Amino acid sequence: MSGGVDSAVAAARIAEAGHDVTGVHLALSANPQSHRTGARGCCTIEDSRDARRAADVIGIPFYIWDMAERFQRDVIEDFVAEYAAGRTPNPCLRCNEKIKFAAVLDRALALGFDAVATGHHAKLVDGVLSRSVDEGKDQSYVLGVLTRDQLSHAIFPLGDSTKAEVRAEAARRGLTVADKPDSHDICFIADGDTRGFLTKRLGAAEGPIVDEAGDVVGSHQGAHGFTIGQRKGLHIDRPAPDGRPRYVLSIEPVSNTVTVGPRSALEVTEITCGAPLWNGPDTRDDLTVQLRAHGEVYGCRVEETLGGLRIHLDRPATGVAAGQAAVLYSGETVIGSATMVTTA
Q: Which of 6, 71, 100, 125 sees the fewest Cβ atoms within 10 Å?
């Protein structure tokens, strides 16, 4: 129970259905702030109090589990290391994979519980993951890295409801979080300054910004402050001859070089991935792929390679970054995922 409306309603629904439910809030920071900054962040003292109040209204036991050390190692340190290597990680996806459905699920099963239920907007039928009915809130992408075994011990009670319906239900149930804003951005960077967060941990290191021809057009204080497809905050000294915006095309951490160019240069039709995780029906026909959370969906063809996967898109995609997940679907159903390595 994060302290938000989704997990509160999820807990209320499964308790009402007759399950023996215990609410658990995860303490993910060794020094949580006492208050949220608007809708940013999560897992603060305020959130733990909101979760406890919701559990009291529902009438279920409530505990706080300290996962700060594991979260620091598996999510925050991984996030920093990925950026240092020139990749763009998804910490929400990693948290689901390493914390909620690994550390938490392992402890829950050891304590005699059967499953972990969360407020994610996704459907799960007979262990098969698929999209939520709320297209705008669907979170099947960030759950696409879960194994079949993890999914067999998961419950997602909100998959058949829109966010508006969840909020209305929370109000009817007397849950004070009914109108609480959703958290957004990266939960452990409450001020939203990802570049500042990374600079504190990796240090500032001046490097060049070059165009496709290799000509220097600006400078930066650390390649880790950029991601593929970024347009704003580039601080380019020499504008493009045609006056059009420039985008980050590549990041080279060894030379600390950021390459920029036109949007058209971002287009890719082929993606090479690491080893795939197949967690859904055994089909490879009529597939689509989603390349980032709440991103566009592309028709595709997949080709398994030695230790990896090659995805051929039916139309060009832009802003595709190494380190992100490619989640494959058959219709609305997740069939697998893989981490993107290179693009062409």
A: 125
Contact of 92 with 43, CB cutoff 8 Å: no
For residue 192, pLDDT beyond 70: yes
Give yes or no for a contact between 95 and 55, defined as CB atoms under 8 angstroms apart.
Answer: no
Tokens of 255: 């030379």
Give the span between the Cα atoms of 203 and 253, in whole angstroms. 13
Q: Which residue has the higher pLDDT, 32 or 125?
A: 125
Say how far apart CA 224 and CA 205 lie, in whole Å.
Answer: 10
Which residue in 277, 281, 333 sits closest to 309, CA to CA? 277
9-22: average pLDDT: 98
Enter the tokens of residue 142.
């960030």
pLDDT at 247: 96
Is the CA virtual torsion 192, 194, 200, 201 positive or negative?
positive
Report how far residue 137's alpha carbon sits from residue 299's, in angstroms, rounded to the nearest whole number. 21
> In the numeric block, which tokens belong to residue 102?
């690994």
Query: Mind telling me the catalytic residues?
Result: 95, 187
Query: At residue 207, what is the residue type?
Result: G
pTM of the shown model: 0.93
For residue 271, the surrounding DSSP H or E stretch is strand 268-273
Amino acid at 247: Y
**Phi-psi group of 309: left, alpha or beta (phi > 0 → left; psi -120 to 50 → alpha; rest → beta):** beta
| Count of C-beta atoms within a 10 Å radius of residue 336 | 23
